[in-house]
Amino acid sequence: MAYVSLILGRVGKAVIVLLAILVFNFFLIHAAPGDPAAVMAGEAGATDQQFLDDLRERFGLDQPLPVQLWRYMSGVLQLDFGYSYRQQMPVLDLILERLPATLLLTGAAFCISLLFGIIAGALAAMRAKRPSGSIIMGLALLFYATPLYWVAMMAVLVFSVTLDWLPAYGYSTVGADYTGLAHVGDVAVHLILPALTLGLFFMAVYTRMTRTSMLSVSQQDFVKTARAKGLAPGVIQRRHILRNALLPIITLAGLQAGQMVGGAVLTETVFAWPGIGRLMYEALMQRDYNLLLGIFFFCALLVILFNMLTDVIYRLADPRIKQGAT
Amino acid sequence: MSEPTRESGAPLLRIERLSLALPEGADRLYAVDNVSYDLTAGEILCVVGESGSGKSMTANALMGLLPSGVRVAQGRALFDGQDVLAMDELSHRALRGRRIGMIFQEPMTALNPLMRVGEQIAEVFEAHDLLTPRARKERALALLEEVRLPDPTSALRAYPFELSGGQRQRVMIAMALALEPELLIADEPTTALDVTTQAQILHLVKDLQARRGMAVMFITHDFGVVAEIADRVCVMREGKIVEMGEAREVLDHPRHDYTRALIDAIPADVVAAVGRPADVLAAVERPGGAIPPQRDGTQSTPLLSVSGLDKVYRTSGGWFQPKREVVALDGIGFSLGKGETLGIVGESGSGKSTLGRCIVGLNRPDSGEIRLDGVDLSALEGRALRAHRRRIQMVFQDPYASLNPRIRVGMAIAQGPIANGVPKAEALAQARALLATVGLDGGAAERYPHEFSGGQRQRIGIARALALNPELIVADEAVSALDVSIQAQVLKLLDDLKRELDLSLLFITHDLRVAAQICDRLIVMQKGRIVEHGSAREIFNSPQHPYTRELLEAIPGRRDAPAPVTATAGVL
Amino acid sequence: MTLLSSVTGRLTAAALSLAVALPAVAQETPSSGGVANVAIQPEPPGLMLPLVQNAPTQRVAGNIFEGLLRYDADLEPMPQLATSWEISDDGLTYTFHLHPDVTWHDGEAFSAADVVFSADVFLRETNPRTRAILDHVASIEAPDDETVVFTLKQPFPAFIQAFEVGTLPIVPKHLYAGTDFYNNPANNHPIGTGPFEFAKWDRGSVIELDKNPNYYEAGKPYLDKIYWHVIPDAASRAAAYENGTLNIMPAGSVENFDIPRLAKLDGSCMTEAGSEYFNPFAMLWLNNREGPTADKRFRQAVMYAIDRDFAKNVLWNGLGKVPNGPFSSTLAAHDDDLQPYPYDPDKSRELLAEMGYKGEPVRLLPLPYGETWTRWAEAVRQNLEDVGIDIETESSDVAGWNQKVSDWDYDIAFTYLFQYGDPSLGIARTYISSNIAKGSPWNNVEGYENPEIDKLFAAAAVENDPDKRQAMYDQIQQTLHDDVPLAWIMELAQPTIYRCNVHDLITTGIGLNDGFKNAWIEQ
Amino acid sequence: MNFFKRFAQNRGALVGLVILGLVVLLALLAPFLYPDSPWRMVQRPFLAPGEVSGFWLGTDVMGRDVAAGLAHGAWVSLLIGLISTVVALAIGVPLGALAGYFGGKVDDALMRFTEFFQTIPNFALAIVLVAIMEPSTFSIVLAIAIVSWPPVARLVRGEFLSIKHREYVEAARLVGQTHRDIIIKQILPNTLSPVIVLASLMVATAILLESSLSFLGLGDPDTMSWGYMIGAARTVMRQAWWLSVIPGVAILLTVLALNLVGEGLDDALNPQLARAR
Q: Using one digit for the tens of pLDDT, what is the confidence trace for C414-465?
């Protein structure tokens, strides 16, 4: 019973944070110069006052800001995120249409980076004093320091244009209309470059973190115990050091998984991945207030969900927390 | 797997001219310098020394657990005829756990927090490719039974954090004994435990050793423990062996001054030691210091009176975890007279530290009164509280954590007066004088804490507490972290200062032997309550409460309690 | 064909005319089948062309919707939904005879009522540009199902230029009459009469158009499908064209620096045809109201200071044309004798000294339309700083740019405007004082007021006599040339890059916006 | 003394320091090496490195000297990295200190506030902020600072939480030092080493972030930064590889150097861990 109320409390806090984010961003976005009507009028190549007034009235932008906020927030409370001014579709539909692509991309990048990052970090920690360990760390540092978009550009150049191994952009082959497994394969092929590009940086992060964490765990007493038992070094590394070293990485990864969703703008742009990051950038540029707020809402929601998920995983991984010890 | 082929009588372990070199820049060249000793099967050898004596290093070298940077400079360590130090990793690994077992000081950190106890024990068999997984589990259970863990079946499935310190140490022992090793190395296995638990563990080790006929290398700093279990003793100081011999021989007739000092620092008979810190110190320092007059606390006017003090700790639980409550203080009441030393004794979790913190004002009690000269401190706020607060100062436990590493010692002492309006120059001058009072030279004021030893730091801590001219000093485990010889010096300093400055002292400790040396009256606490209260002499001579009796009996080295006279009494 | 494939970035006027003549040269018979993969950027906000006037919308929806007329490279009208038309001698009555066999994509029959509804109701309400043109119209009537008659209030010779698909698209009356135009469900699945039907739109990825099997022009269109690929990054678009995923790159799909390289690829062709109607004209708004830019000498100094040939050669790869005055060279009314301002920094400095410019800071607002424009702003800033003008660049996104220009909050601002085939449609709007109003970035934003110019533009618009009209336009050009209300910096080229096996891609002066009904792919 | 010795023992950190020193030197010498504006178009466009003497790194799309841009860009990139880090520290350190020191409701409120900023994806927030304030050095620095302070606050809070119960802090409370003195004199100096390490990494992240913003066209149009150079070169990557590679390598080296220095600092300031390496 106590758990239920605790979870409710947690959810309550999350809702408050989400609403606060909406209000904050509402004012932030409205502080930007220009409004969607001006943008649309600008694009039309011709305009007059009547056209602008019509647009603003239609969008409700003729109302004072607090009224607009009130209308928007009362809509949100009923899970109505409004209409995209520009795309003339409900915001929720637009976001839900794009969200899977982003989740696929970030999910893949996340798994790749976590898996390979931990493996590389563990190897580097075990070989801390050997050249191979230094090489791994050197590479990690290199990936860490290279601007993401630059890697993306180079990857397209090498693997798509020059070698023609992988598609340069997009989510699936246009016009191929694959179904079933063929479709899955098609999407997977399209996924490789963007996911690798996005994952590379985080892979470097996890590599470094795993190594540091493992080196610090290896100083702990229970590692001495394990050695005193006569366990083989590999077993000690895997079972004792790595498992304990992963705890801080779970926390970090949880934080970053949420951040990745909104942070994939660059990758999605370069690879024309039809995700939510790109949609956000476009919505911002077009002052599509409702859409932008909606995207922020969902990004924040994902961050919160990932944080909760992290907590759960942490609890599974660390028995001390489950039982209320510190 | 060669069966032991050594002829009977030949030592199981022979250390020959072993030297372990420290890395460059250490305070001396060798951690262990040209050390030789033997250990035969069925024998308990205690390696005794204070921190930094190198007593654990040899054991670590045997187990291949030397810290990085420390290397073998010369010598051999023959285990069953084979030089362990020259072995390749594979054969060495085959030895570890199987023929040599080891337990460590910190039961809290020596077990992997993420693995169940049963798995960790079973791992020992797995490491040496023995038994089926099922059989391993059964053996683990049997072992837990053997080390007398309550409810071994559920302990098997427990995570380390679910066990108490003593229980964890039992698990460690079970693990070390799993493969019935010929040699057990125990590195300060009881130091982190409460006295009562320590007694149990010592008993267990001795019992198991006797049943299995193993050799035990028991590393400790405590001659009380030596007296309790050792067959032979090897005393180390700064990497060298200063004395070695049969336990009884060394205890009764220590040949080396250092050994004598160590033994003397531990009163074998607490009753005899009551109120006699100067006597205790006589062996360490120059003889001197008058025997204090017997005082009765009730005769002096109460400086501090505490009544009805309650305190409950509540953890507010994250999501998923329920709130928890720990009763730290439960209706505590006592008074302390001017110039009196009151000892508060209890094991960990008894609430004794919370009591001290409530009195100095670091914690707020939930209810109850703390009156200083009749003024209720818990009712005061802000300025008035601050004005009263300076009258009670505290000496902390950890000499390393109680001084800000980035503040010069002089400034650290002067901070209090400065915060209370004394001009900086004056405060600093006063700080220098105080340093002299606690036995440090004036130049110390310009140095940083890390340039001082633990004992010196504790003196600085005392000087800091004195800087505000307090009337009451609360010393919370003020000597627990110090080596025994240093302990005695600090105790003497406290006692002297108390008398010179007419201070009252509230002395919080877990160590009855220490309490015996300095306190006029004692309070024994258990689980937040006062279970016994009386003059030190009364309590040691005729403890009323069973818990007090248990505590007294648990003191290591106190043989055949309550009989006061033993062979060691003579030296005191 | 072979000629074109060897054309490099430095296309000359001669090559341009060749390209226009392309349909005549083509000997092969068109074959059906094939798919067009076209880059589209940015993603259109919607495809309901009569509601959304955005350039990418026009480009895609020009295949779905149709106007009454099309225009050739000389901007002469060609039949589309109207098979023939008459203009009365007094220039007041325009009669259109409609194609008899046209059906909407949903199967309903097309009739004159749709035209009347579109022009008189729908577009008057929704389209500001068309609304301005229709101000000249007194009535629109449909005497029968195949005839529409527009009656004007006064002669307006430019009116015949107003029937292309972007300006006057025909909307299905049966779907829209009496509804809320903006929230009509048909907006998401637009129904037109054009050669291609809307099939699918994966937002963020691709828009799919299918061949209209019931198209009224027999045998057309030839292509089975058109895919419009949404790829936000220019370099990625170029890569996609290179590896063959895309076969048509409309103007603006790749950065100018990349054009020569892509055009030089094997089997790659380029044409500048199809920009005659819109003919985008790049200029700098110079704020005539305040600051140094209010001084005519300063504005002239700007004209002298800017190295327009450098911009053309370096930034636009030699494509486009340095204008000699306010009128685009493709307009009939263009005065060929006008001398362009030369690049003459010394003259510029002289003028600045003469007016007493003391180094007051001048803000420069670039057009946030991609790399070329950013580079151009950098070059102009450098030019102006070289003659001693203190420039502060103000960066902004599209919305901010719109806002600032519409609110006259700038000193110098980049822009470009369409000419729409006639000075009265595309040019007068930027100079006549009646068009000074906040809220639009496309009117007389610079705040130029000259009663004489106002009068001349008004008179020329309704003058039916070509010679008299030309005389007025010559005078306008001369006056504006001297006054420099704004700086004319470039007639922009609209190069389309495509695979050479795509034929008859551009057959009118409206270019790709006019739909792909004639395009075919050599199998 | 010990610190410098330990730092000097770390070869990577020394290499980092040398690279960083060179970059700083380049930045400082830029006005002397290339007194002209780096925006000036001085030669034919697209000169490859070394093709014409005097332009050892070639020219860009508009004939501007890449070497001049690199030198002036070093100044801008470093400055943006440093200032935004300082601003982020100025926000994060006090917030974290107050939250950690006072705990309870103060902590709750401040941490909610921090969480709030962490819940909005960083890069997205930075983009929105720059777009709203319009790109300029000021807005970029502010945006980077605003998205990068929460980790600082969390770190400082954590340090405060652990240090505030140290006995020397309690001793300071007992002798009657004010909260302000305890925070500033007792605790803060002891939190500095992890903060310094974090700060060195933040400078690197800020440089990357600025370049990413520039890449999206959200750079300050009046300052020549490395991010700007890459962004501007992106469309001509196929014709002139050096235009994106040269500033790319410059960013890479600087970030690399900062990381190496950061790791070196970490090792030197936390000797316990250093020994394990």
A: 998 888 888 888 889 899 998 898 878 888 999 999 999 999 999 998 888 8
Residues B222 and B351 in one domain: no
The reply to whether B213 and B357 lie within a common domain is no
* Min Cα separation B391/chain D (Å): 9
Distance from CA of B398 to the nearest CA of D (A): 8
**Contacts (Cβ under 8 Å, ≥6 apart) of B554:** B195, B196, B198, B199
B328 in a domain, yes or no? Answer: no
**The total number of structural domains that make up chain B:** 2
CB C128 within 8 A of CB C31: no
B407 vs D185: CB contact, 8 Å cut-off? yes
Q: Residue B352: what are its φ and ψ, rounded to 5°?
A: -65, -35
Contact residues for A154 (Cβ-Cβ < 8 A; gap 6+): none
Residues B238 and B341 in one domain: no
Pairing of strands C225-230, C486-491: unpaired
Mutate which: C378, C380, C391, C401, vs D, most D CBs within 10 A: C378
Looking at chain D, which residue has its C-alpha nearest residue C260? D239
The C-alpha of C312 sits at a distance from chain A's nearest C-alpha, in angstroms, of 24
pLDDT at A321: 66
Please check whether residues B18 and B127 belong to one and the same domain: yes
C-alpha–C-alpha distance, residues C212 and C223, integer Å: 10
Q: Report the interhelical angle of A2-30 vs D104-119 (nearest 10°).
A: 60
CATH number at residue B243: 3.40.50.300
Query: Rounded CA gap, B505 and C520, in Å?
Result: 103
**Which amino acid, A306?**
F
Tell me whether the omega of the peptide bond preceding residue C42 falls within 30 degrees of 0, making it cis: yes
Residue B326 inside a domain? The answer is no
Among residues B191, B225, B248, which one ends one of the domains? Answer: B248
* CATH number at D2-276: 1.10.3720.10
Query: How many whole angstroms separate alpha carbon B527 and alpha carbon B328?
Result: 7
Which tokens hold the place of A303?
Answer: 């961050």
From C238, C366, C379, residue closest to D62, measured CB to CB: C379
Smallest CA-to-CA distance from A256 within A307, A213, A219, A215 is with A307
Could you report the predicted ipTM of this complex, rounded to two decimals?
A: 0.80
Residue B412 lies in a domain: yes
What is the C-alpha radius of gyration for chain D, rounded to an integer number of angstroms? Answer: 22
d(CA C78, CA B272): 124
| Contact call for residues B508 and B353 (beta carbons, < 8 A) | yes
Query: For chain A, where are the E strands, in sequence order?
Result: none
Are B215 and B354 in the same domain? Answer: no
Domain boundary residue, one of B248, B263, B282: B248
User: In this structure, what token pair is assigned to residue A156?
Assistant: 């397209």
D216 vs A269: CB contact, 8 Å cut-off?
Answer: yes
Residue B309: both structure tokens together? 């003090």
* Host domain of residue B480: 337-367+375-571
Residue A68: Cβ within 10 Å count: 17
d(CA C481, CA A16) in angstroms, rounded, equals 62
Kindly tell me the burial class for residue B24, based on how many C-beta atoms sit within 10 Å of its own C-beta (0-12, 13-18, 19 or more). exposed
The two structure tokens encoding residue B504: 């009252």
Instruction: Provide the 3-class DSSP secondary structure of residue B330.
Output: strand
Domain boundaries defined on chain D = 2-276
B150 and B23 belong to one structural domain? yes
Q: What is the pTM of this model?
A: 0.83
8-state DSSP, A236: I
- Between the alpha carbon of residue C265 and those of residues C7, C248, C258, C508, the distances in Å are 11, 13, 11, 26
Look at residue B312 and tell me if it is in a domain.
no
Let me know whether B209 and B356 are in one domain. Answer: no
Question: What are the pLDDT digits (tens) for B197-248?
Answer: 888 888 888 888 888 888 999 999 888 888 888 899 999 988 889 999 998 8
Q: Average pLDDT of B301-327?
A: 74
Same-domain check for residues B243 and B349: no
